[in-house]
UniProtKB/TrEMBL annotation:
<feature type="binding site">
    <location>
        <begin position="330"/>
        <end position="331"/>
    </location>
    <ligand>
        <name>ATP</name>
    </ligand>
</feature>
<dbReference type="GO" id="GO:0005524">
    <property type="term" value="F:ATP binding"/>
</dbReference>
<keyword id="KW-0547">Nucleotide-binding</keyword>
<feature type="active site" description="For GATase activity">
    <location>
        <position position="2"/>
    </location>
</feature>
<keyword id="KW-0067">ATP-binding</keyword>
<dbReference type="InterPro" id="IPR014729">
    <property type="entry name" value="Rossmann-like_a/b/a_fold"/>
</dbReference>
<dbReference type="InterPro" id="IPR001962">
    <property type="entry name" value="Asn_synthase"/>
</dbReference>
<dbReference type="Pfam" id="PF00733">
    <property type="entry name" value="Asn_synthase"/>
</dbReference>
<dbReference type="InterPro" id="IPR033738">
    <property type="entry name" value="AsnB_N"/>
</dbReference>
<dbReference type="GO" id="GO:0006529">
    <property type="term" value="P:asparagine biosynthetic process"/>
</dbReference>
<feature type="domain" description="Glutamine amidotransferase type-2">
    <location>
        <begin position="2"/>
        <end position="180"/>
    </location>
</feature>
<dbReference type="InterPro" id="IPR006426">
    <property type="entry name" value="Asn_synth_AEB"/>
</dbReference>
<feature type="binding site">
    <location>
        <position position="95"/>
    </location>
    <ligand>
        <name>L-glutamine</name>
    </ligand>
</feature>
<dbReference type="InterPro" id="IPR017932">
    <property type="entry name" value="GATase_2_dom"/>
</dbReference>
<dbReference type="InterPro" id="IPR050795">
    <property type="entry name" value="Asn_Synthetase"/>
</dbReference>
<dbReference type="GO" id="GO:0004066">
    <property type="term" value="F:asparagine synthase (glutamine-hydrolyzing) activity"/>
</dbReference>
<dbReference type="Pfam" id="PF13537">
    <property type="entry name" value="GATase_7"/>
</dbReference>
Length: 536
């Protein structure tokens, strides 16, 4: 995990570009380096050392003239070295270097050989390729300045005041000067007609175990974000068992307003059941409100649900890095894949249900992936997401929607995932946790968190300001005082229209109340009754 910056197309001031790269120093606190290629391209790298701590310095040179900067992890790098690249000589022992060697061997057509999460730029003379992973787990922005030079960076804050126009780099695409943007990731599950597989519970279970196992790859200490919900509890359960086989103990981390927070209560049960080394973190409403401005600078969004959920994640990430942990597993993606949000209970048909899951997964880069990456990397912590593994996605997304849809009056979201891990031969989780009602992260830390945010922001924004909101902010006009408050802060940092357009708002579907809190759904019910209904 790192921060990358590439400027291609003009003789730029190296000192200025290096200074701009330092705006991302939180992403790479371990090392900072820059290289100017023979063609004048400037490549900067802010490094968080995860793999190959001693020799994995970037930018990385290929066999001769090609240079590369990379943010992310390539989980199949050893297999690539032993097979496709067996004749190549490597300068490092880490995962990143395989990218530049694949470019040297295959040109542009190697992206589907990579199994991992990535954003990278390879420069070879006047030729170059920039690419982003299939789902957009890792962030990447691109823009063009007044002189026509192209800029690529992990965070918008690096290029926003340098480029006349900019936007997020689309996930699943690569860009070259000769081809422009090319979509390399076109899975069959993009099509409704292909999502008709029977529910193979063993295959689903084995696929998630494999996705989690590969994400334990690390040369530094590793932990897990444990909210006590189904998604993080499953990854914790799998990781704890895999590490135990190696004689290691998993560190788990949870956060809430106090010890009675719904997530903390459930996480405690999971940690005890799994035998993890568990850590609980508390924060106050006042502390949360106090860091919102700094948080929006890190997140680069004004989306309400992203800010609500990122605040506790920001505090949790800080506490984790202070304990010497650099990598954590997280449960992002499961709600989108399996229709886990409570509003999915109201889907009018199987077809509409599946359309919404596909749409949500394709937009993860603007929501949960953005939140998970930037709130953790604000403190130099890498979050890995097993549910967004390319192979697991194929397995899960191609299951026919009738097998995924919520059952009857209980609104049992992610029913098929629960059934896959409700096995008689092995108890992955306590029964009451496996069938626990969905609590969105910003709710689970304590219901008073969102309630207090709404009350505070109402006191900060006048009725007159709301009346003028459409004229001041014609793009994504804020419709509540909370949204207006966040938009004002965002505008202070990123006043460009391109910045405003880069944000996509997360809005629940099929419910009258459009507040993104899960508690706004009419299917949100008491935990005790939910477990009874879910199992029926």
């Amino acid at each position: 995990m790192c921060g990358i910056l590439a400027v291609i197309g003009k003789k730029e001031d190296q000192e200025l570009v290096s200074k701009l790269s330092k705006r991302m120093s939180h992403r790479g606190p371990d090392e900072s380096d820059v290289h100017v290629t023979e063609s004048g391209a400037i490549l900067c790298h802010e490094r968080l050392s995860i793999m190959d701590v001693t020799t994995g310095k970037q930018p990385i040179q290929g066999t001769s003239s090609a240079w590369m900067i990379h943010n992310g992890e390539i989980y199949n790098y050893k297999a690539l070295k032993e097979n496709e690249l067996k004749d190549h000589t490597f300068r490092s022992t880490g995962d990143s270097e395989v990218i530049v060697h694949l470019y040297e061997k295959y040109g542009y057509g190697f992206l589907n050989k990579l199994d991992g999460d990535f954003a990278f730029v390879v420069v070879d003379g006047k030729d170059f390729i920039a690419a982003r992973d299939p789902i957009g787990v890792k962030p990447l922005y691109y823009g063009k300045d007044a002189e026509g030079a192209l800029w690529f960076a992990s965070e918008m804050k690096v290029l926003a005041d340098q480029c006349v126009e900019f936007q997020a780099f689309p996930p699943g695409y690569y860009y070259t000067p000769t081809t422009g943007f090319v979509q390399y990731y076109k899975p069959e599950w993009y099509s409704l007609e292909e999502c008709q597989e029977e529910a193979d519970l063993k295959r689903l279970r084995d696929s998630l175990i494999a996705a989690t196992k590969k994400r334990l790859m690390s040369d530094v200490p590793l932990g897990v974000l444990l909210s006590g919900g189904l998604d993080s509890s499953l990854t914790s359960s799998i990781a704890a068992r895999l590490l135990k086989e190696k004689g290691k103990k998993l560190h788990s981390f949870s956060i809430g307003l106090n010890e009675d927070a719904p997530d903390l209560i459930a996480a405690r049960k999971v940690a005890e059941f799994l035998g993890t080394d568990h850590h609980e973190i508390h924060f106050t409403v006042e502390e949360g409100i106090g860091i919102i401005k700094k948080l929006i600078w890190h997140l680069e969004t004004y989306d309400v649900t992203s800010i609500r959920a990122s605040t506790p994640m920001y505090f949790l990430s800080k506490a984790i890095t202070e304990k010497g942990i650099k990598v954590v597993l997280s449960g992002e993606g499961a709600d989108e894949i399996f229709g886990g949000y409570l509003y999915f209970k109201n889907a009018p048909s199987a077809e509409e249900f599946q359309k919404e899951t596909i749409s949500r997964v394709k937009r993860l880069s603007t929501a949960d992936c953005l939140r998970a990456d930037k709130s953790t990397m604000a403190h130099g912590l890498e979050a890995r997401v097993p549910f967004l593994d390319k192979s697991f996605l194929q397995t899960a997304m191609e299951i026919a929607p009738v097998h995924k849809m919520p059952k009857t009056h209980g609104g049992v979201e992610k029913y098929i995932l629960r059934k896959a891990f409700d096995t008689p031969e092995q108890a992955f989780l306590p029964d009451e946790v496996l069938w626990r009602q969905k609590e969105q992260f910003s709710d689970g830390v304590g219901y008073s968190w969102i309630d207090s945010l709404i009350a505070f922001t109402k006191s900060q924004v006048s009725d007159l300001e709301m009346e003028m909101a459409a004229s001041k902010y014609p793009v994504n006009t804020p419709t509540t005082k909370e949204a207006y408050y966040y938009r004002e802060i965002f505008h202070e940092y990123f006043s460009q229209e391109s910045a405003a357009k880069s944000v996509k708002k997360w809005i629940p579907k099929w419910q009258d109340d459009k507040d993104p809190s899960g508690r706004a759904s009419t299917t949100h019910i008491a935990q005790t009754s939910f477990v009874e209904v879910a199992k029926s």
